[in-house]
Amino acid sequence: MTTEPTARSLPRESLGDTHLRRLIVGQGLAAVVDALFLIWLTLFVLKLSEPGMTTGFVLVAVALPRAALLLPAGVLVDRVGPARIAAGAAWLRVAVLLALGALITLTSPSVATVALLAGLLGAADAAYFPAALALLPAVVPTEKLARVNALVQGAESGGDLVGPAVAAGVIAVVGFDATLGGIAALAALAAVALSMPIRAVRRGERVGDAAGPDEVDGERVSTARALGAGLRYAWREPVVRGMLAAIALINITVVGPVLVGGAVLADQRLGGAGSLGIVLSGFGAGSLAGSLVAGWRPPARRGWTVVGGVAAIGAGMAGLAAVTDVVAATAVVSLIGLGSAFLGVVVVATLQERVPERLLGRVLSLVVLATVAFDPFSYLLAGVLVPFGTRTLFLVCGGAVLACAGLVATSPAIRSLR
Q1: Hey, where are the domains in the chain?
Q2: SS3 at position 26
Q3: How many helices and strands in the chain, by DSSP H and E?
Q4: CA 288 → CA 162, 261, 349, 396, distances in Å?
Q5: What percent of the chain has pLDDT over 90?
Q6: If you average pLDDT over every residue of the chain, what do you get?
Q7: 293, exposed or middle or buried, with CB in 10 Å at 0-12, 13-18, 19+?
Q8: CB under 8 Å to 252, separation ≥6 — which residues?
Q9: What distance in Å separates the CA atoms of residue 240 and residue 349, rounded to the nearest whole number?
Q10: What is residue 187's three-state secondary structure?
Q11: Which residues contact 256 (CB under 8 A, 6 or more apart)?
Q12: What is the pLDDT of residues 24-82, one digit of tens each?
């Protein structure tokens, strides 16, 4: 069974370029806010307590609600509409950031209080991510989806690249309070921009959807049944199933090994732990380049592009086993970043075009889940393999990704993608 491209019911042409620009600006600013706040939060918790478990506890407080609520949030996106969920989640972020700002300005907050508010931001992220991805096809003409996804992911990569240095520098100059105020202001601008297209999108929803997305004989099914419908669709469709499996495997075999194994590699072969920052900046630069290239020249044969992107990541991981200096390591990690970002743009744009609108929020929530939920397993894998040496770590992980590329290439549904 193959999925044919699905015509969207929303009158995208009537939304105009103004709404499109606002959407790109809003999602780009939201990505920058995420990058800046993560660094702010890490440094602020380090100020409150000694380095160690406390910092991990707060970061887990962000990650757990985000991962746990992603799939229910996908159902909510399909039922309520991506425009309203994206705008509501954006404003919830603003409210939490303002509350956190007032708390640290007026009191001396405990780590537990900071973790609680950080958890609310994680919940907002769970709703925002699938809604933002599902909103794009409602506003963006199909032929522009790859380009707009590239711009949004490019903003995210740019935030990851410069965010740590900018956040740390601003904190050093003006302090934690003022820096958080600036982040909240950027979040408010993002929320305003994301709220602008909501009326036009809602008009399109009323025109295009006479029946709800989860109604049987006029009655709405339960959230569990609605979620089950999304999971069954993702499993039965070869394109969706293959892409989700590739994303999950790449996340498991890349994130932890690059961070954990990269730190060991830097200490043993690259001249010291300080070189790790240079290498990781190469990943950010490669990601930015990959996003922009994917938008500038969308591939004509998407299926083979997906195979090539997975293979490039695998080759880069295996290549890390042989590097002996910072320049080579940075170049190889840049290749991994470029392949990851290029692949991300192609995969997301393909799913946005092909998945039925009534299931889009649920399927895209699975995509987000595949990119964030497996980090603990990735760190565990790195911890198990590091004692055998970094060469073994990178060869095993690179080989697994290359094997995944071979399996993806055996799928006729993916090979035939245009």
Answers
A1: 12-211, 232-415
A2: helix
A3: 16, 2
A4: 11, 23, 17, 27
A5: 22
A6: 81
A7: middle
A8: 374, 377, 378, 381
A9: 12
A10: helix
A11: 375, 377, 378, 379, 380, 381, 382, 383
A12: 888 888 888 888 888 888 888 878 876 556 666 777 788 888 888 999 999 999 988 89
Pull the structure tokens for residue 214. 């989860």
Q: Is 185 exposed, middle or buried (0-12, 13-18, 19+ CB in 10 A)?
A: middle
CB within 8 Å of 180: residues ≥ 6 apart: 40, 97, 100, 101, 104
Percent over 70 (pLDDT), the chain: 85
Give the list of residues 6+ apart from residue 203 with CB closer than 8 angstroms, or none.
11
Question: Model pTM?
Answer: 0.80
CATH topology of 12-211 equal to that of 232-415?
yes
Q: What is the pLDDT of residue 28?
A: 84
Give the tens place of pLDDT for each residue, 148-179. 888 877 777 776 667 666 777 888 888 889 99
Q: Using alpha carbons, list the distances in angstroms from residue 82 to 172, 274, 344.
A: 38, 43, 20
Q: Is 272 left (phi over 0), alpha (psi -120 to 50) or beta?
A: left
Tell me if the domain spanning 232-415 has CATH number 3.30.365.10.
Answer: no
Amino acid at 161: L
CB atoms within 10 A of CB 402: 17
Please provide the size of the chain in residues: 418
CB atoms within 10 A of CB 37: 26
Question: What's the CA gap between 97 and 114, in Å, rounded?
Answer: 11
Give dist(CA 9, CA 398) in Å, integer.
42
CATH topology of domain 12-211: Growth Hormone; Chain: A; (1.20.1250)
Amino acid in the structure at residue 69: L
**Helix intervals (H) in 107-210:** 111-139, 145-195, 198-208
Q: Can you tell me which residue has the tokens 């958890």?
A: 119
User: Which DSSP state fits 386?
Assistant: G
Amino acid identity of residue 189, one-letter, is L
3-state secondary structure 193-262: HHHCCHHHHHHHHHHHCCCCCCEECCEECCHHHHHHHHHHHHHHCHHHHHHHHHHHHHHHHHHHHHHHHH
Question: Could you report the per-residue pLDDT of 346-380, keeping only the tens digit for each?
Answer: 888 888 888 888 899 999 999 988 888 787 788 88
For 261-284, the pLDDT digits (tens) are: 887 888 788 877 667 777 877 888
